[in-house]
Amino acid sequence: MLERLSWKRLALELALCCLPALLLSVFLGHLPWFLLAAVAGLLIWHFHNLLRLSWWLWVDRSMTPPPGRGSWAPLLYGLHQMQMRNKKRRRELGSLIKRFRSGAESLPDAVILTTEEGAMFWCNGLAQQLLNLRWPDDNGQNIQNLLRYPEFSRYLKARDFGRPLHLVLNNGRHIEFRVMPYSDRQRLMVARDVTKMHQLEGARRNFFANVSHELRTPITVLQGYLEVMQDNEMPAALRDKAFGTMREQTQRMEGLVQQLLTLSRIEAAPALSLTEEVDVPFILRQLECEAHTLGPQHRVHLDMDASLKVYGSEEQLRSAISNLIYNAVYHTPAGTEITVSWQRTPHGALFSVRDCGPGIAARHIPRLTERFYRVDKSRSRHNGGSGLGLAIVKHALSHHDARLDIESAPGQGACFSFLLPLRRIVAPSNRIAH
């Protein structure tokens, strides 16, 4: 193992250099001149090695230092070892930075690193997509210049980072910002897209408001009649009418609760196996009889393939089909014809309900599957509609890889249809086996 560079080694090197001068001076004399020449040679040799070291550090910059002898050997070896350690540390640091960036890229949130003054020096891909930042083009830019929102600037200047900032961007997205100290005079900024949560919260508020509104009317009617019955003696005819109205309102509340339970059950249903064989023609024949009972003056025409069965959930498909047929009965004038079709097509099993009603304006069609949405609110309530039928249809069909298609125009009736994919159709061999 090489010795460390020390004053003893340098002194020994100087002594060995002067020894030949001493020997020559014994025979030839002129000791000072020989000593001067020996020291000058030693200085020239050191100067030559110093030039080689400078060339290696600033010009050559290779990993292997030049070979050295004497006192220069441990020095060059030590420099080489220090360079190798620094290289290893840089490699470890690079790997650490790479792992950090890889982890930050996999986060479901936008991540931005800034200085305490707000200068951005890194951001992940989601931050570029969500906040329209550019990396590395925006390196060094102040984050307040990139996100020009007064609320955002006030939040950073207030330095009260114990609470998040809820910000609505120009594109309508709702973003939640959190800022945390990251390192010495640096900040870690996390931005999360909470648009869906905001929409769900709004839908929840609207849902409860709509349910309260739907239940308020029948409860008010029942309460009013009960107060009248309690305070006054009512004639038999008026009492019978009151009881009839109270019964209708009770049935209306019961129907609303049943629809809510059905919708909740369908929405909360886990992934279904959909291996149950559903006899849709049998369901249609039953619903045809019920439709005649609900609307005896309607003409219901059934056009179906009696052998066409499908795989799925019988409960959900029955709910979807019955709601579409009942809607046609409720919302079309008496004496009109309703055509129910169930046929095989090259793309799957097609179900449709076509009526000759007043039709639906184009602006209403995209919202028909929303909960409690009605085109004609007064008429729907008069018919006992809850506004949940098409929402039930939408969720039931989504479990069967299908969607509801609506074609309608004012004065031209409406057609509600859905297409179950070919893989849902029960093959003839399977039907014979059953």
Automatic annotation (TrEMBL):
Main location: membrane
GO molecular function: ATP binding; phosphoprotein phosphatase activity; phosphorelay sensor kinase activity
EC code: 2.7.13.3
UniProt-listed InterPro entries: BphY/WalK/GraS-like, HATPase_C_sf, HATPase_dom, His_kinase_dom, HisK_dim/P_dom, HisK_dim/P_sf, PAS, PAS-like_dom_sf
Places the protein is found: Cell inner membrane
Topology within the bilayer: Multi-pass membrane protein
Domain Histidine kinase intervals: 210-424
One GO term describing the cellular component: plasma membrane
Catalytic activity line of the entry: ATP + protein L-histidine = ADP + protein N-phospho-L-histidine
Keywords: ATP-binding, Cell inner membrane, Cell membrane, Kinase, Membrane, Nucleotide-binding, Phosphate transport, Phosphoprotein, Transferase, Transmembrane, Transmembrane helix, Transport, Two-component regulatory system
Record carries keyword ATP-binding: yes
Superkingdom, taxonomy of origin: Bacteria
SMART domains: HATPase_c (SM00387), HisKA (SM00388), PAS (SM00091)
GO BP term, pick one: cellular response to phosphate starvation
Uppermost EC category: transferase
NCBIfam families recorded: phoR_proteo, PRK11006.1
Protein task: Member of the two-component regulatory system PhoR/PhoB involved in the phosphate regulon genes expression. PhoR may function as a membrane-associated protein kinase that phosphorylates PhoB in response to environmental signals.
Name assigned to this protein: Phosphate regulon sensor protein PhoR
